[in-house]
């Protein structure tokens, strides 16, 4: 496969940055993104054929997933010494065009982006129990800075807030178990054969109960950020909740996840309290009413996690006239 060159990026570099982009996490590994390479830049589009109507009716998580892919794309371009000038939702009349990245200007190498770019292929959702090792405060500060650098916020939870959040997770989980459309979608996209190109394969899901994961599964006597033996819980919030805020939140989520990976940490998603609208409203109140909760993550030290497959690049490119043999 040979791609067109874009700006300062030769065709091999365009291919390598797109390969980095598609390693982003996405709800049920739907990979709801498409790319178009034009002389003016690399476009990121939402793949609306991959919407999850029951799990994600307002496509908030689709935008988070695409935001994560956008952060990988920007980071991989940065690491090549090129500035990824990015415009979000550039055309009002084309809402599925989420961003254009224009790699036209050189910039001085930035070690922070090189570290994050190296972490991209090593980040995997880890649904297994974590060890009870403490996440050092300096690393937690780095996670917070990662969120802030992308216009989002990682609030500190005190013990009562954490307990209340645990209750919301349980409440939201029960609501989802009672929702037959949600369950049908969950069954459709998880427990896939390991060679499947999308969805969550059996080997990554671990077992049928991964949706039941809770806060208290770290082993051993000492966790951090909560009662002994519990992993560190991150709530990622944004300052607004429109499509651009959600795209920004997805970029912040991915920056935070890559920062965690680079520090040797594992993470998994606890999306129940942001997927069920009543729980999300309560979580927003719990955070003081000023932030829109976008994702809850469990962060800690796990044993090596397994990778999930991705669609081939040819399936996520919108204009294959730009491919040459
Ligand atoms: C917005 C969003 C919500 C997610 N929700 C969950 C979840 O509730 N439970 C879960 O186990 N994984 C969840 N995931 C993780 C995806 O299943 C995972 O990213 C996907 O299978 C690809 O695997 P990878 O992250 O290892 O690359 C979520 C990911 C995203 C981006």
Automatic annotation (TrEMBL):
PANTHER family: NAD(P)H NITROREDUCTASE RV3131-RELATED (PTHR23026:SF123), NADPH NITROREDUCTASE (PTHR23026). This is Nitroreductase. It holds the Pfam family Nitroreductase. InterPro entries: Nitroreductase (IPR029479), Nitroreductase-like (IPR000415), Nitroreductase/BluB (IPR050627). It comes from the Bacteria. It comes from Amycolatopsis magusensis. Residues 124-301 form the Nitroreductase domain.
């Amino acid at each position: 496969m040979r791609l067109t060159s874009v700006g300062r990026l030769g065709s091999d570099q365009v291919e390598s940055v797109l390969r980095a982009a598609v390693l982003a996490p996405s709800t049920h590994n739907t990979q709801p993104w498409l790319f178009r390479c034009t002389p003016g830049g690399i476009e990121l589009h939402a793949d609306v054929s991959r919407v999850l109507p029951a799990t994600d009716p307002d496509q908030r998580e689709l935008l988070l997933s695409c935001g994560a892919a956008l952060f990988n794309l920007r980071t991989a371009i940065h690491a090549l010494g090129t500035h990824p000038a990015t415009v979000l939702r550039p055309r009002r009349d084309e809402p599925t065009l989420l961003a254009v990245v224009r790699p036209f200007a050189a910039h001085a190498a930035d070690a922070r982006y090189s570290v994050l770019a190296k972490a991209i292929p090593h980040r995997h959702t880890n649904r297994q129990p974590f060890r009870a090792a403490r996440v050092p405060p300096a690393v937690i500060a780095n996670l917070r800075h990662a969120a802030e650098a992308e216009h989002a916020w990682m609030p500190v939870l005190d013990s009562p807030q954490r307990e209340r959040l645990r209750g919301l997770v349980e409440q939201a989980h029960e609501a989802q178990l009672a929702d037959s459309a949600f369950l049908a979608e969950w069954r459709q996209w998880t427990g896939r054969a390991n060679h499947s190109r999308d969805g969550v394969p059996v080997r990554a899901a671990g077992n049928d109960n991964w949706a039941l994961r809770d806060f208290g599964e770290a082993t051993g006597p000492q966790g951090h950020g909560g009662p002994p033996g519990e992993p560190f819980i991150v709530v990622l919030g944004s300052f607004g909740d429109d499509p651009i805020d959600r795209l920004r939140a997805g970029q912040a989520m991915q920056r935070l996840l890559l920062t965690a990976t680079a520090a040797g940490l594992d993470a998994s998603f606890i999306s129940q309290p942001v997927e069920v609208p009543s729980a999300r409203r309560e979580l927003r109140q719990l955070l003081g009413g000023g932030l829109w909760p976008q994702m809850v993550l469990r962060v800690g030290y796990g044993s090596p996690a397994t990778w999930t497959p991705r669609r081939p690049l040819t399936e996520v490119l919108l204009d294959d006239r730009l491919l040459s043999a």
